TrEMBL record:
Start and end residues of each Gfo/Idh/MocA-like oxidoreductase N-terminal domain: 5-96
Species per Swiss-Prot/TrEMBL record: Garicola koreensis
GFO/IDH/MocA-like oxidoreductase domain span: 131-249
Family annotation (Gene3D superfamilies): Dihydrodipicolinate Reductase, domain 2, NAD(P)-binding Rossmann-like Domain
GO molecular function: nucleotide binding; oxidoreductase activity
SUPFAM superfamilies per the UniProt record, alphabetical: Glyceraldehyde-3-phosphate dehydrogenase-like, C-terminal domain, NAD(P)-binding Rossmann-fold domains
Protein name, entry field: Putative dehydrogenase
Keywords tagged on the record: NAD, Oxidoreductase
Coiled coil ranges: none
Amino acid sequence: MSALSVIVVGAGAIGRRHIKAVRQAGDTVTAVVDTDIVAAREAARPAGSVAQTSLAKTLADEDADVAVIATPSGQHLDQSVLAVRAGLDVLVEKPHRVPGEVAAGLRASLGGRRYFVAMTTRHWPGIEATAHAIADGSLGQILTYTDRMHFRLAETDLPPWYFDATLSGGGVLLTNGVHAIDRARALVGPGLELDGARLVRVFPSHRCEDSAEIQLRNHTGIPVHLSLLWSPYASGNTGLTVNGTRGSAVVHMDGSWQLITGQEEQCGPAIEPDEPFARQWQAFKASRSGFDLEDLEPTLGLVERIYRRYTYA
Ligand SMILES: NC(=O)c1ccc[n+]([C@@H]2O[C@H](COP(=O)([O-])OP(=O)(O)OC[C@H]3O[C@@H](n4cnc5c(N)ncnc54)[C@H](O)[C@@H]3O)[C@@H](O)[C@H]2O)c1
């Protein structure tokens, strides 16, 4: 396959990881778009790309194959539609839309274009190993499934838009919960029933929930517990734990993992943060199944159901 030319939209922490992944694969970042021209220029310089502040102008000026969208979450759907209508394939950060938005216009515009939602944590080696072990039965009957994403945060640890639901679409349930729900759907789903939830704001200044405790159930009755937390006091014990009648799997939040079954014991080290973005770019180029609009829409549907039923205190 010849090298792809790519427009990266959003030159923040995550956009810069995508730029590295694209370049590492031998593809070209043609342009970096950021409303903050200084950020666009800084990210564009090492890649030898053009720096722009407007996606519409860049789409008109540049002849590119793919747009990678890594802006604040509330902008993903509109920017996806712009890029797809300009004839580009799209790799969009999660979530691909925020609660209340509908993907019908995007779906209608897709044609044959590839549309891939960035679910980086599914490209962690430990998650892939756990998925295989569940699918091939080596863990036996699944007894418990618990996924804890707990982050110790100070007020300024993330850009402020993350904590304003009018810009981000939601708090910890949307930003981190889409990963946890996506993993649960991929590992023990795809269908999950909602048994209960509790959303709480921890930081008085935030305009979103910082804590979400979610209880789900898969079609065979496996209880799925998701625990999501942004707190200045968050303590350890994070990651995914699956216990079965014949084995267990643990994947920590740094990506390190351990899988124990009757036959063997496997483990892997913490992963370097750029690695899942590189693996994801390869999966995008190979059009690996499981990451397109129809795969990810039910995850957003579940997030929306939780927000409808449980408002935060
Ligand atoms: N896949 C993962 O593991 C993962 C991890 C963290 C965050 N994310 C997601 O990545 C996305 C970006 O997060 P981030 O931490 O890099 O945020 P960030 O605030 O660091 O970066 C966003 C950038 O977008 C720019 N921007 C804002 N509006 C724009 C517009 N209209 N056009 C062009 N640029 C614009 C901002 O100036 C900023 O530089 C979010 O959707 C977030 O949920 C994904």
